Amino acid sequence: MTTTEVKQAARTSEVAAPDVVPFGWEPARTAATPRPDDEALFRFPAADDPAPGTRRLLGMSIYASFLGLAGVGVGVRGLVSQIGGGVPGWYTWVLAFLGMVSVALAVGAFLSIHRRVLPLALLTAAAVPVTADILLAVAY
Asked: What is the DSSP letter of 37?
C-alpha cells in the first residue's frame, strides 16, 4: 500500500464509540450508520450535525443565564442567612439540591438542542426549582 492509500483507509475507517460514553454520542458516523436521533433524546452533537438556529441558541442561552443569575442571588441570600444564624439545618441542603436540579434540567435542554420541543420544556421545568429556591430564600 502506498501512503496515499493508507491515509484514505484511515479517513474512511469508522471508530466505534466505547460503551461508557453516555447519551448515544458517536465520534464518527458514515452514511450507512443510522442517525441516533430516534434513539437518544440527550446526546452530544456530532461533527456532521447541522448547527442549531442562532435565535434558538441565543434564546436558550439568555433564558439559562437568567436562571443562573437567579441561582446566584439565591446562593448569596442563603449564605447571608446561614451566616446570620437562625435557619434550620435542612435549609442549606434544600437550597443546594433545588439548585442542582435546575442546573441538571438546563444541561439536559442544551444536550437536546436538536429536538423540537424538549429543550423548551426542560428550560421551563428548570424554572420551577429556581422559583422554589427564591421562595425559600425569601422566607428565611
From this structure: G
pLDDT for 63-119, tens place per residue?
Answer: 999 999 999 999 999 999 999 988 999 999 999 999 999 999 999 999 999 888 999
User: 44: how many CB neighbours lie within 10 A of its CB?
Assistant: 15
For 31-83, the DSSP string reads TTSPPGGGT-SS-PPPTTSPPPPHHHHHHHHHHHHHHHHHHHHHHHHHHHHHH
Same domain, 70 and 105: yes
Q: Which three cell numbers stand for residue 48?
A: 456532521
Q: Is residue 12 part of a domain?
A: yes
Unique residue bearing C-alpha cell 493508507: 6
Q: What pTM does this model have?
A: 0.70
Residues 81 and 128 in one domain: yes
Residue 86, in any domain of the structure: yes
Give a yes or no: residue 45 inside a domain.
no
